[in-house]
UniProtKB/TrEMBL annotation:
Signal peptide: none annotated. This is 3-isopropylmalate dehydrogenase. GO terms for biological process: L-leucine biosynthetic process. It comes from Novipirellula artificiosorum. The gene is leuB_1. It catalyses: (2R,3S)-3-isopropylmalate + NAD(+) = 4-methyl-2-oxopentanoate + CO2 + NADH. Homodimer. The keyword Cytoplasm does not apply. Its EC number is 1.1.1.85. The lineage of its organism: Bacteria, Pseudomonadati, Planctomycetota, Planctomycetia, Pirellulales. Pfam families: Iso_dh (PF00180).
């Protein structure tokens, strides 16, 4: 019996298509080595380019394809100087998150070579944690509200719902169980100041009772920022509110070489989108120098999530290939001080992969 996974590919804007092409290429190369598994890869239009073409940044046909797919691979969307007439950023990735209820943003942070971190004395075994970001509410709630510039104030709300907090906490504890690390989940909050966070903490503690094998802890977000830089090895799985997660994930990416090294997954009840943590990087688009690693590692996360013995094997192979390639510090794109192009780095991953599979 052959299992065909329907994967929607959304290149998007800027360097998005350049990096998704690399992931698609590697998936196609892996396919013949996997027994009983096929990938039905279909590209769909989305993003600023599509908005300019058709007036809709997320066409219904694209959304339907995503909704009915097994997984979505997404590059990046949005460009700083193209906006909706009301001034809002064109960010269909946020609409996708909302409409598919992708509540859990999973951002694994892993150092592949000591030369990639600005932290002195840290090596690949010490920086390896996962940030889980609640992605449907928090301080991003009500992002559609347009500020009244003539009013005397502007207010944003921070919403934590029972359902929202519980599902993201469960995702974090399940992840800690799967990882063979410290078996610890740290809730990053600000319960000393915000009542919404006292509530979040209460729900986190309730969920923790169902996981006696996992150690729960609470860390204030300001302290967590310091610990992340001073002793990143203290973390295993971290879970936090939307905006804190947004900020901390960029800080975390900085620990392992920058945005080009940070993969992510946005997980929902019955949909999942895999994309690099970085944006469309218009400053380097079209030059062939975008770092493909974050995108390739996002594809590895997708293979893991598809949950088939052969896709699990492929996920491990892909991550091992990346790890092998990056063990040579000259295998880097310019954002990390290297000289390789996007395709040269992918070529290296590809040849390493052939040997592993
Ligand atoms: P977003 O609003 O989507 O978060 P952003 O404005 O924060 O986007 P990014 O596009 O994520 O910006 O990246 C910031 C800068 O980092 C880019 O302008 C680019 O120079 C660099 N960068 C990001 N991703 C990569 C990559 N994959 N390869 C090389 N450089 C990158
Ligand atoms: Mg950003």
């Amino acid at each position: 019996m052959i299992k065909t996974f329907k994967i929607v590919v959304l290149g998007g804007d800027g360097i998005g298509p350049e990096v998704t092409d690399q992931a698609v290429r590697l998936l196609r190369e892996m396919e013949p080595y996997l027994s009983g598994v096929k990938f039905d890869l279909a590209e769909h239009r989305v993003g600023v380019g599509e908005y300019q073409r058709s007036g809709n940044a997320l066409p219904e046909s694209t959304f339907e394809a995503c909704r009915t797919s097994d997984a979505v691979l997404l590059g990046a969307m949005g460009l700083p100087n193209v906006r909706y007439p009301n001034g809002k950023e064109i960010a269909p990735q946020l609409d996708l998150r909302e409409r598919l209820q992708l509540f859990g943003g999973i951002r694994p942070i892993r150092l592949y070579h000591e030369s990639d971190t600005p932290l002195k004395g840290y090596g690949k075994d010490e920086i390896d944690f996962v940030l889980v970001r609640e992605s449907t509410e928090g301080l991003f709630y009500g992002r559609d509200v347009v500020a009244d510039l003539d009013a005397d104030e502007a207010i944003n709300e921070l919403r934590i719902s029972r359902v929202g907090a519980e599902r993201v906490c469960r995702l974090a504890f399940d992840l800690a169980r799967k990882r063979n690390k410290a078996k610890k989940v740290s809730l990053i909050d600000k319960a000393n100041v915000l009542s919404s966070m006292v509530y979040f903490r209460h729900i986190f503690d309730q969920v923790a009772k169902d996981y006696p094998d996992i150690t729960p802890e609470h860390v204030y977000v300001d302290a967590a920022s310091l610990f992340m830089v001073r002793k990143p090895d203290a973390f295993d799985v971290m879970v936090t509110e939307n905006m804190f997660g947004d900020i901390l994930s960029d800080l975390a990416a900085g620990l392992v070489g920058g945005m080009g090294m940070a993969p992510s997954a946005d997980i929902g009840e019955d949909a999942a989108v895999f994309q690099p943590s970085h944006g469309s990087a218009p400053d380097i688009a079209g030059q062939g120098i975008a770092n493909p690693i974050a995108m390739i590692l996002s594809a590895a996360m997708m293979l893991e999530w598809l949950d088939h013995t052969e896709t699990h094997r492929a996920a491990v192979a892909l991550e091992t290939a990346v790890s092998e390639v990056l063990s040579d510090p000259s295998h880097r794109t310019p954002d990390m001080g290297g000289k390789m192009s996007t395709t040269q780095l992918t070529d290296a991953v590809s040849s390493s992969l052939q040997k592993i599979l």
